Every structure is written in structure tokens, then in C-alpha cells.
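Example record

One chain of 212 residues, shown exactly as stored in the release files.
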Amino acid sequence: MCSGRIDPAFVLRAFSKGADGVFIGACHLSECNYITHGNYHTLNMVLLMKKIIEHIGLNPERLRMNFMSGAEANVFTESVNDFVKKIKELGPLGKTEELSQKSLTRKLETVTKLIPYIRLVERERLRASVQTEEAYHAFFESDELNRIFNETIVEKLAIGQIVSLLKEGPLTTAEIAGDLGLTPSEVSKHLNTSSRQKLVRFDENLKRYAVS
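Predicted C-alpha cells for this chain:
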């Protein structure tokens, strides 16, 4: 199967099912058997997903992509063995990162629900313009990428987590901030946006926010 077929949803499903790491093997860049250069698309996806999973509190080294040909069995073996060694060092998903199972599940579900939006934003704004491995890495390490990422992904993730959290019961701004590791001012900003979108409401009787 071409690595270009790999979707962000596949990565998230693996983590949601309990995988401690995800390894993707792909053809060498610029050596695509299908002339579609799908491995460049997947490289872009992997770099974006590493940024997203780091943002939600997971170690980005739990996701890795290596390039090799079908004739390089030794490269495949060495790559997989090295990845397995790294994952063993990191330990079970979420535990090293000090995330409870409930929090981990909520974060992964939030990102999964945003996959259609993430695909759209990646295609339009979060993709390197030059097809070289160096250009892709440089783009994802740039201030410009961070700015666009914050504008397009970060707020959506925060709002998604807030709504998911409030489905468990009404909470104050401070309680939401403590659970999600955000500042009260950040939570207030996201709650204002969520209120305008009619996703949440303020319950005057409880003096807490709840889902609409």
C-alpha cells in the first residue's frame, strides 16, 4: 500500500486502541512507484500530527516515519528495532506524560472529531510548498507555521476539549482551566467563542458553564 494512503485518522485510531507508538514505513522520497509522490503528503501529515499530539500532551516521538525501499530489509529491521527500543523507553501511552486514561481518551477523541477540518487546513495552509525533506522540516519548525497552527488548530482543539469536558457535568472557569492545563483567561476566551457558537452556556443557578 502506498504510504500516501495513510490518513491522520489511522494514527489516532491506533493510539485510541492502546498502541504506545505508531511507525510508518515509506518509499524513499522522489522514488514514488505511483508517480503521485504520496510519501511527501504523508511526511507533511506526520509532521503535522507530531505537532498536534505534542500539543495535547503526548510525546511526539511516539510517531515516526522512516524511508526505505522494498529491497532494504535490513533498513526496515533496524528502523523498527530502534523504534521499539524508543517506545519501551517512553513506556505506556499517557503514563509517562502523566495523563489519566479519561483525559487521554478525551484528548484523542477531540482530535479525531476535528480530522475533516484538519485535512482541509493542512491542504490549504499547513503544507510545505517545496517537495524536499529539508523544506518540509524547515517549514514545520518556522514561526510562520506556529502562527498558522495557533490560528487554525489550537483554538479548535481547546474548544473541543472544553465541550467534551462539560458533557461530564457543569464546571467553573477555574475548574476547566485546572483540568485542561490552561490559564483562566485562555479558558474565558474559548468559552466566549463557544457561547457565541451556542456550544456552551452559563448556568445562572449553578454559576457554572454547561453544554447547550
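Notes: The two ends are 44 Å apart (CA to CA).
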